[in-house]
Design a protein that fits this description.
By secondary structure, this protein is an alpha/beta fold. The protein has 17 helices and 22 strands.
Amino acid sequence: MRRKRNVKILATLGPASNTPETVRALFRAGADVFRINMSHTDADGLAARVAMIRAIEAEMGRPIGILADLQGPKLRVGVLEDGAVVLEKDTAFTFDLDPAPGNRGRVPLPHKEIFQILKPGMMLLVDDGKLRLEVESASAEAARVRVRVGGKLSNRKGVNVPDGVLPIPALTMKDRADLDAALNAGVDWIALSFVQRPEDVAEARKMIAGRAGVLAKIEKPAALTLLPEILEIADALMVARGDLGVELPLEQVPGRQKQIVRMARKAGKPVVVATQMLESMITNPVPTRAEASDVATAVFEGADAIMLSAESASGQYPVEAVTMMDRIAVEVEHDPHYRSIIDAQRAEPEENSAPDAIMAAARQVAETLDAAVIVSWTSSGSTGLRAARERPGVPIIALSPVTRTARRLALAWGLHCVVTEDAHDLDDLVDRACRLAFAEGFAQSGQRVVVTAGVPLGTPGATNMLRIAMAGTAGRGTFATD
């Protein structure tokens, strides 16, 4: 199951993709990682889906990543007397903590934390930004707002506060229970919603304790102001364009997407571009031209993964959506301009370490000698991520004796992950790298293979060896550095 592209595809499971037959078809069509949205899944449903994916993984013989996406806090208005009210532009009304049903003059907003930060001039966005309300006055229990963009307001619609940092933790009680269930089920990544500050990621990371990777969803303006600090703690980022596009002016989202992708690439951490990538394929068998261009832009930027949400979870054409995303990505990566764009965006690593130098040299040697493939032995996953950060022009095989590591690396750009027993010694390491490069179809007998590893063997993050060998041979290396 060798992919013909480097960017990975993350597909969300849901009612339209909840059977082994459909999940198998999604994987065959190109899905590398499966997302389980905990907003719509309980612990039993999560465990069943993980078991289903693991059975297909065993059948296919290739590591498959699983991401559990925590719901995070949900800020919503209360209920209205008639179920809905039409708010006219330039009219005023009051939000308050009174749980009594609302009307045209007042609407319940059962979140005291919102009132704690409201000030005159701040904006409240309701129903994904369809309604825009400006705060005129505020107290600890109520706020007078004026309608700047009106429309219909109905029960339980969501509220966004783009102009402030809310005193609300990213993990609710539900999230904590879902997190325990996800870790017990053995998922590979935890996606953290409602990230506003580094402490939100640090709290989740402490609870996870290394049992899964921590992916911070960047969906709030507050997170953008602290992006370097958040990235330092997180294992990966997601450009969550849904809420980000609500809380930011829409014209700023493309630039912010590029900022997040490039910062993550420089740090050598996976970055996912998500939300509405092929939205029209929820109900149509083909996307719009603009959607195809949107997917292509993320691939040209060098994102590690591109994600499908409702398209594969509840849409009418889940397999077709993955197939289309795969086709677009393959076409982009074969475009004559692709390689020059990827190379132009390459940044020097933030640390000047020996492993970084080895992986930069591996890329240069592989491209100079026209090697068939780079083979990186990786126990913790750090060597594989360093190889992916280089975005080389040749394929990368990530060999790992740790199944959990291989599954987690399924999210990273360009890594073809293979689980194999640990090497016995240096000769065995090089020999097996050459044989697996041949067996996996990446190199023909006699072609050059660039091998990287850490010596002594089994030392996490200690990449310090580069060797050139020949595929299909017994590891006759011609160059090594320690």
